[in-house]
Design goal:
Layout lengths: L4 H10 L1 H8 L13 E2 L7 E2 L4 E2 L1 H14 L3 E7 L4 E6 H17 L7 E5 L4 H13 L2 E4 L6 H11 L3 E5 L1 E4 L2 E4 H11 L6 E5 L13 E3 H6 L9 E2 L3 E7 L7 E6 L1 H13 L8 E4 L6 H13 L3 E5 L11 H9 L3 E4 L1 H10 L16 E4 L6 H10 L5 E3 L11 E2 L16 E2 L5 E4 L12 E6 L14 H9 L5 E10 L5 E6 L3 E4 L2 E4 H9 L4 E11 L3 E10 L7 H15 L8 E4 L13 H9 L13 H12 L1
Parallel strand pairs: 4-17, 6-7, 6-8, 8-11, 11-12, 16-17, 16-18, 18-19, 19-20, 30-31
Antiparallel strand pairs: 1-2, 3-13, 4-5, 9-10, 14-15, 21-22, 23-24, 24-25, 25-26, 27-28, 29-30
Helix pairs in contact: 1-2, 3-4, 3-5, 3-10, 4-5, 6-7, 9-10, 12-13
Bound molecules: coenzyme A and adenosine monophosphate.
């Protein structure tokens, strides 16, 4: 590996295909790639178009065959259930092959979709790997989503099977998943052939005869299934994420490009080698969980920690340090919001002092912009260990920018997401599509093609992919983020250019929330904006206009709207506020002035748009926001 970020990036830029051909050696292929990239396939091209492999083989079988069978693959640590366990590579392979056998015996084949609706339990990882073993396409749905969101994903993915847990555990509260699944299957026009249910003691749920079976019993009775060979371009998973409308986008992930990118990233970005322990304190429902709880650690022969708990309250703000010490974690990866939660409860890091963190080498952050205060606080707390913010999207599957332990770190700048990873030519573009000068804000875009690992398209929606990402700046992928690149090449991601907000590292569509609010009988129209929140970064707030004649009590209306969002989208939306306004700011042609609303919410200065129909409405909204 060449030394230094500049050398690595220059090596990639000199000959991108040769770079990725070399990186591909980290993977065991059944048919190694001859062609590296085919620009004629899909919306912008496909990586490794003639290669074949199985990802589960690369994550498990080859390590067991290579002598790693007795090494721990997964540590499960669940303070919310009071349980802990560990699975070796051999044990994980056995369970995965059995679940693959159970799925195959019930008709699941290569290309079929399987929806997984589970909390942070080892069976979630086993379910993902079992799908990969069969060449089936998994779609994991985060447990904090409500039945209607699950139903929308089931309707789009049309899965042959659903694998679910009977419940999730939140601090002090059991979340029964099974009734949510039953409700979702009632709402969805598509029904799977069968459901396998992990029955947890806290709320085992009722099995519906003829449709539901006990997951563990099915696995115990199954014959282990071998790996099914797939094309590198075959889909590994679909992960739904918020778009700007209520309809979630099915981000597609291919198999070969993803395997190469993840395997390459483990030594280069994270500085991890086989046998190392890494912990990504996220959730398998998010892209970070797919990539760095499950696939990358296992591809690299590492041990991965699966944590079912919170940064605070399970039982205290020392939980992260306890887990790092207990398992000998070398790199911790989490969202800035988790650090802010710890900082709030234990600002001086008193709880950290009682743990031996001698194995911990670096902290990685992603999911939202890390405010410099939090980054510097973490660096101080961790005695100067590198705190590396890296910029990500569900679409990219791995980081766009970061810092590269394997190549030698460059100095961090708190508030910046670092410099582009190999494969990414990042530009800040003006509205005319031309790069803006260093230090000036523009739309952050990536010159095509995107590197291996990034979404080749949306599930069954090439046109939506082109329209959402490729049309704004021809020749570029539009990230939807705004920011600047400084004279030394550091990328600073500052905000979104669309109507997506980021709440505690979770991506929410204001459009989806507006659809829910608009369904209330008293609401004529509404806008949802993200307002600053010291813990979660942003939280959504509704501005609602009443139908003429409606005269609800404002507090009661707010409570009803909060309950409606919780029921339709889920508690994870953290929707707690709605205010009645006389009117929304609009242009004379009737378009809501969203950019102005965003600025108002962020407390930024704004110029009253000349097209606005009634400038006074901005004063009314400013007054409401000032009181929040
Ligand atoms: N299943 C069911 N409900 C869930 C859930 C799940 N998997 N995850 C969260 N929820 C619920 C919570 O119980 C909470 O419900 P409440 O409104 O009844 O209290 C709500 O959704 C909001 O949850 P959360 O965002 O976790 O907020 P919190 O106030 O409980 O905790 C933090 C705050 C900062 C501790 C928490 O947001 C956190 O750990 N964030 C890290 C996020 C992260 O890892 N993101 C991944 C991106 S890399
Ligand atoms: P998601 O697809 O849910 O991972 O959300 C991706 C979005 O989160 C990005 O488009 C950014 O807006 C934001 N984001 C993720 N990581 C970072 C980061 N390190 N710095 C700034 N914003 C980030």
């Amino acid at each position: 590996m060449p030394e230094g970020h500049a050398a690595i990036h220059a090596e990639w830029q000199r000959d991108p295909e040769a770079y990725w051909a070399r990186a591909a050696h980290a993977i065991d292929w059944s048919t190694p790639p001859q062609a590296i990239f085919d620009p004629s396939q899909g919306p912008y091209g496909r990586w490794f178009p003639d290669a074949r492999l199985n990802l589960c083989f690369n994550a498990l079988d080859r390590h067991v065959a290579g002598g790693r069978g007795s090494q721990v693959a997964l540590y499960w640590d669940s303070p919310v259930s009071g349980q802990k366990s560990r699975l070796t590579y051999a044990g994980l392979l056995d369970r995965t092959a059995r679940l693959a056998g159970a799925l195959a015996a019930r008709g699941v084949q290569k290309g079929d979709r399987v929806v997984i609706y589970m909390p942070m339990v080892p069976e979630a990882v086993i379910a993902m790997l079992a799908c990969a073993r069969l060449g089936a396409v998994h779609s994991v749905v985060f447990g904090g989503f409500a039945a209607a969101e699950l139903a929308a994903r089931i309707a789009d993915a049309t899965p042959k099977a659903v694998i679910a847990a009977s419940c999730g555990l939140e601090p002090g509260r059991v979340v029964p998943y099974k009734p949510l699944l039953d409700a979702a299957l009632g709402l969805s026009p598509h029904r799977p052939d069968f459901c396998l249910i992990l029955r947890r003691d806290a709320a085992p749920g009722e099995l519906l005869p003829g449709r539901d079976e006990d997951l563990l019993e099915a696995m115990a009775a199954a014959t282990p299934h071998p790996c099914v060979d797939v094309a590198a371009t075959d889909p590994l998973y679909i992960l739904y994420t918020s778009g700007t409308t209520g309809k979630p986008k099915g981000i597609l992930r291919d198999t070969g490009g993803y395997a190469v990118a993840l395997a390459h990233s483990m030594p280069l970005l994270y500085g991890l080698a086989p046998g190392d322990v890494c912990w990504t304190a996220s959730d398998v429902g998010w892209v970070v969980g797919h990539s760095y709880i499950v696939y990358a650690p296992l591809l690299a022969g590492c041990s991965s920690v699966v944590y079912e708990g919170k940064p605070v309250g399970t039982p205290d703000a020392g939980a992260f340090w306890r887990v790092c010490a207990e398992y000998g974690v070398k790199t911790l990866f989490t969202a800035p919001t988790a650090l802010r939660a710890i900082k709030k409860e234990d600002p001086e890091g008193k709880l950290l002092a009682s743990y031996d963190l001698s194995t911990l080498e670096a902290l990685f952050l992603a999911g939202e912009r890390c405010d410099p205060d939090t980054a510097l606080w973490a660096e101080r707390l961790l005695g100067g260990r590198p705190v590396i913010d890296h910029w990500w999207q569900t679409e990219t599957g791995w980081c766009i920018t970061g810092n590269f332990r394997g190549a030698g770190l460059f100095p961090m700048r708190a508030g910046s997401g670092g410099k582009p990873a190999p494969g990414y030519d990042v530009q800040a573009l003006g509205d005319d599509g031309k790069p803006v000068p260093p230090g000036q804000t523009g739309s952050l875009a990536i010159r095509l093609p995107l590197p291996p690992g990034c979404a080749p398209s949306l599930f069954r929606a090439d046109d939506r992919f082109r329209q959402a990402y490729l049309e704004a700046f021809p020749g570029f992928y539009n990230t939807g983020d705004a920011g600047m690149i400084d004279a030394e090449g550091y990328v600073w991601v500052m905000s979104r250019t669309d109507d997506i907000i980021n709440t505690a590292g979770h991506r929410l569509s204001t459009g989806a929330l507006e659809e829910v609010l608009a369904s209330h009988p008293d609401i004529a129209e509404c806008a949802v904006i993200g307002i600053r929140d010291a813990l979660k970064g942003q939280v959504p707030m509704g501005l609602v206009v009443l139908k003429s004649g409606a005269n609800p009590d404002p507090a009661k209306l707010e409570a009803e709207l909060v309950a409606l969002v919780r029921e339709r989208v889920g508690p994870v939306a953290a929707f707690k506020r709605a205010s009645i306004v006389q009117r929304l700011p609009k242009t004379r042609s009737g378009k809501i002035l969203r950019a102005t609303l965003r600025k108002l919410a962020d407390g930024e200065s704004y110029t009253v748009p000349p097209t606005i129909d009634d400038p006074l409405i901005l004063d009314e909204i400013s007054e409401i926001l000032a009181k929040v």
